[in-house]
Amino acid sequence: MSLEEIREQNKRLVAETALEVFTRQGAGNTTVADISRACGLTERSIYRYYKTKVDLIQAAVYLYYDKMTREADRRSREMFRPGMTGLEQIHQMLRFYSHMYLEYPDQIRFCADAEVILSRAGRERDDVNWPPEQFERSNSPLVRAIRQGLADGSVSPKVDVKNLYYNAYDSILGVMQKMSWSRLQVSREEAGTRMDQLCDIFTAAFRGDFLT
User: Fold this and answer.
1) How is the chain split into domains, by residue range?
2) Which of 61, 63, 88, 155 is placed for a possible disulfide with 84 were both Cys, Cβ 3.0 to 4.6 Å?
3) What average pLDDT does this structure show over 137-147?
4) In angstroms, rounded to a whole number, what is the distance separating the alpha carbons of residues 103 and 57?
5) CA 191 centroid distance within chain
């Protein structure tokens, strides 16, 4: 293994460990020393790979979103059946994204925390590349489903699908983040019901139910 390969391997190890520690302790409560101890590396070694804690937070966020992107692709292959309309696929993907709160509440909380920290550090949205991907260049399961829905007629051609795509993603993420930080305990059943209702609303919007 070359020195460059070893460096990249160690860099990913640090990012993966950082994601675990940030998720468990909170980004604001975690020090680089905490991560170095968890990695079994010195702080000096950590700083060879990431110049600042903010860089490390950004790397951990990228890693989480990359994992979720891969999971979305995998789940879409499991959920999508031959003959499903694009609208049916949209509904399935919205439910998948929304139920991440039930499966990964700590990670959702970390991402909300990280977004604030990175913003305060001057990392602009385009620099950090927060999801969702730009609609025009995305090949995500949700965007593929939207395109299929337009092709098969299950999505109304009168709907502004681009902005509806952004609104659906941001709304679902916003509700998930709010529930993750809420002082009022939200039961798993209530959280699931709320997310399902939100998915139903956006599915109806893609169908064109709210057009005037």
Assistant:
1) 62-207
2) 88
3) 95
4) 21
5) 18
